[in-house]
Design brief:
By secondary structure, the chain is α+β, with helices and mostly antiparallel strands. The protein has a domain of 208 residues: Nonribosomal peptide synthetase, condensation domain (Chloramphenicol Acetyltransferase). The strands form 3 sheets. A 6-stranded mixed beta sheet has the order 5-6-7-2-13-12, with helices on both faces. It has a 6-stranded mixed beta sheet with strand order 8-15-14-11-9-10. It has a 3-stranded antiparallel beta sheet with strand order 1-4-3, with no helix packed on it. Strand 14 and strand 15 form a beta hairpin. The longest helix is centred in the middle third of the chain and has 34 residues. About 10% of the residues have low confidence.
């Protein structure tokens, strides 16, 4: 059975995972049932999805370890898919409120995926008072990042109410229900050969990349006559920020538990774009300003607002346009979100300055950051480090570089349909971590920005309140900027 080995970046999400820190990402798809629909939408969706499962290759692969876990694991084909495990249904009890739905999502998202199977699971949720249904879909981050997730969406959704024709799966890819497969037996000789070969390839890649990295660094330190080299200016910015990039202590800087809280909220994309245009900012800067306003109010009311501004970890996609490979291509930056500034318009100006400097730092040295790594025993050693870090409670004591994760994922601008049902909203569900117990991810869909706030339940038990403040902060910022 042929293996497709994970890169160091992809495999790191496996090593970071503990019972307290599941490393899957998920989404909520709200939909309206097709007009006149009768019967079980779960069974209807199951038949629809089963006919398209083969178009998402990663959904038919499972993990296989290397010899003695000396190197990164690989993906291998799973011959039989147990759809009773991967596709499930649940119904909300009366009255079927949004708060009840968010409670269910918090519980589902706290459960780790079974590593003996393909790393994904879907739930059809019905019983909402407004008659809508919800698809909760989670996939392990080792298999997919936000950009590649959009490629999966292309296989799941249609742009018309009538699903498009999809070529049937080859006979060997037909799915059914079987017992979980036994762990793969790895040939020790072949396993050892592969491990040594991979280590050698990694070393060769480093040597091959050295001239390009050196060239990038040299160009960064060269300048036109009368101008400062880009890297020197960047380093000056970084040095000037060092005293402030020690994040202040907040309730979010804590060792997290196995429990999750969740909230989904929506604001207008058109209003947000108008704020960006009027202020000369990027859409992501406006999102950061909205989050900064909500976090300021939330912490202020609890008497826990620091004098220093909170710092957000902001993921940056390294994916080139048109690249639909289902792997992780991400980096990140740290940005102050001006929670110490009361005026919404002034807060946006401060964030614009901080984010511009952070992007410059990330961009200057982007090509010098390796996107893969390998060393003997990585699966065991890195997993051990994460277990010790979580069990020791060091996140409660050590200084942290950030307080919260804030991520912005562009989504489809046109209406979508899933199994003939009209999609009304797409909300992300993401990953909190030790020391950053709150993750705010936003995805655009048509004329909406859909927020998903995922948190540790102990650190942020009232995440719905913070979600309400996000909506109010957006309105305050629109008014303060004075958009047309």
């Amino acid at each position: 059975m042929e293996q497709q080995q994970l890169s160091g970046i992809d495999a790191s999400f496996l090593y970071l995972e503990t019972p307290e820190t599941p490393m899957h990402v998920a989404g909520l798809t709200y939909f309206e049932l097709p007009p006149g629909f009768e019967g079980s939408f779960y069974q209807h969706f199951r038949r629809f999805f089963e006919s398209r499962l083969h178009t998402i290759p990663i959904f038919s692969k499972r993990l296989a370890p290397s010899l003695y876990d000396l190197d990164h694991p690989g993906w291998v084909d799973e011959e039989e898919i147990d759809l009773d495990y991967h596709l499930r249904e649940t119904t909300l009890p009366a009255p079927g409120s949004e708060a009840q739905l968010e409670e269910v999502i918090g519980r589902l998202h706290a459960n780790t995926l079974d590593r003996s199977r393909p790393l994904w699971q879907f739930y059809i949720i019905t019983g909402l008072a407004n008659g809508q249904g919800v698809l909760y879909s989670k996939v392990h981050h080792a298999a997919v990042d936000g950009g590649a997730g959009m490629a999966i969406n292309k296989a799941l959704y249609d742009v018309t109410a009538v699903p498009r024709e999809v070529a049937p799966a080859p006979p060997k890819a037909a799915s059914g229900k079987t017992a979980p497969s036994a762990p793969i037996a790895v040939d020790p000789v072949k396993g050892l050969t592969d491990i040594m070969g991979n280590m050698m390839r990694q070393q060769l890649k480093m040597w091959e990349a050295a001239p390009q990295i050196l060239n990038s660094m040299t160009n960064a330190f060269l300048a036109k006559p009368g101008e400062m080299p880009a890297a020197l200016g960047t380093l000056q910015n970084l040095i000037s920020q060092l005293p402030t990039l020690n994040a202040p202590r907040t309730p979010f800087n804590a060792t997290i538990t196995r429990e999750r809280s969740y909230a989904a909220r929506t604001i207008s994309l058109a209003d947000t774009k108008a704020v960006a245009k009027a202020s000369g900012a990027k859409l992501n800067d406006v999102v950061l300003a909205i989050c900064g306003g909500a976090l300021r109010r939330y912490l202020q009311e609890k008497g826990e607002l620091p004098d220093k501004p909170l710092i957000a970890g902001v993921p940056i996609s390294l994916r080139e346009p048109g690249d639909t490979r289902q792997n992780n291509q991400v980096s990140g930056m740290l940005c102050q979100i001006a929670t110490d500034v009361a005026d919404p318009a002034e807060r946006l100006k401060a964030i614009l300055k901080s984010s511009s400097e952070a992007k410059q730092i990330a961009g200057t040295f982007r090509d010098a950051v390796p996107q893969d790594f390998a060393f003997v025993g990585a699966p065991i050693l890195l997993q051990l480090v994460m277990l010790v870090y979580g069990r020791s409670g060091l996140a409660d004591k050590l200084p942290m570089p950030m307080n919260v994760t804030i991520s912005n994922v562009p989504g489809p601008p046109m209406p979508l349909y899933c199994a003939g049902a009209k999609v009304t909203a797409l909300h992300p569900v993401s990953i909190p971590a030790h020391g950053a117990a709150l993750n705010i991810t936003v995805q655009s869909y048509m004329d909406a920005l859909n927020f998903g706030l995922t948190a540790d339940r102990r650190a942020v038990p009232d995440v719905g309140l913070l979600g309400d403040y996000l909506v109010e902060a957006a309105a305050e910022l629109t008014k303060a900027v004075g958009t047309p």
